[in-house]
Amino acid sequence: MKHFTSVQDISDWSVLWEKVKQIKQAPQGRKTLGQGKAMCLIFLNSSLRTRLSTQRAAMNIGLDTVVFDINQGGWQLEMADGVVMSGSKAEHVKEAAAVIGSYYDVIGIRAFAQLQDRAEDYQETIIQQFKKYAGVPIISLESSVRHPLQSLTDLITIEEYKKTERPKVVLSWAPHPRALPQAVANSFLEWMKTTDYEVVLTHPEGYDLAEEFTQGITSTNNQSEALQNADFVYVKNWSSYQDYGKIVRADDEWMITDEKMKLTNDAHFMHCLPVRRNVVVADGVIDSPNSLVIPQAAHRVTAAQTVLELMLDHA
Ligand code: AN0
Ligand code: CP
Asked: Which atom belonging to ligand 1 lies closest to the Cα atom of 184?
């Protein structure tokens, strides 16, 4: 695997599932795979899971890791080509990525959508520029459009907990006090499309995702209808794609409650975390035995290690 920035980077699913199985059985089975190599994880935004699980995955295979919170102590990077750099940005990504690539064998980068300019966010500029200039494999730790490590985790989790071959998986929008990116939802749909699950998307009017992600997916503005007989309820907030980056209305009634979960087929509750209790999901649901949020988050290590092993196997 050269880079890991979207589902397109998976070239052989049977090799991937074999690896997932091995890692679940013996996480430290390949303790020396990363020996003599090192990874740099660059964060432009906050993180708990991505930061810690990716480091833990690296530890399991003996890959040294450095975390670089670039906004705290790094230079501000110019991402666009051909600009006159007379403003506040001291260094161009062209040099920065190449330099980091000369020190490290793998680079992970988290750069959320800014939610100001849709065209700019949807170009995934930061990931693209690192791919172009770093000269080493790039792992997305959540870009402005996608969060593939999360989506792989979600797929591994559903595969582990599904009780039928073709479970009904519902992705439901839920309210949130802050405008959030669409990346987790976009990416989830992109990965779900590779399965033969019954996938249903539900959100209030005004929260349609980009067509490239929703094409071929059943979608409804009626949350109760979507939840009928669901086996997995995956919940996430995102801000509007049409009215870009905006919270278009108060839709508090979209919170996932115990009452709503009663409509489902005793569904598992999933969320990528961090989650705001009693805004996105009621305590009763997230604290119930049907909630998968902790095992799901634990599988972030499985997912990161799978990706790292696939990269290093062919390095
Ligand atoms: C981020 C988001 O919605 O993209 C990260 C989720 C993994 N969430 C928040 O900022 C709360
Ligand atoms: N799910 C997830 O990516 O969590 P963090 O933002 O804490 O890394």
From this structure: 4
Index of the ligand 1 atom closest to the CA of residue 274: 11
pLDDT in tens, 148-161: 999 999 999 999 99
What CATH number should be reported for the domain whose range is 7-146+300-313? Answer: 3.40.50.1370
Cα 47 to averaged position of ligand 2 atoms, centre (Å): 5
**Superfamily in which the 150-297 domain is placed by CATH:** Aspartate/ornithine carbamoyltransferase (3.40.50.1370)
From 43, 44, 112, the mutation candidate for ligand 1 (largest count of ligand atoms within 8 A of CB) is 112
pLDDT tens string 189-234: 999 999 999 999 999 999 999 999 999 999 999 999 999 999 999 9
In sequence order, the 6+-apart residues with CB closer than 8 A to the CB of 113 are: 121, 144, 145, 181, 182, 183, 245
Q: Where in the chain is the domain with CATH 3.40.50.1370?
A: 7-146+300-313, 150-297
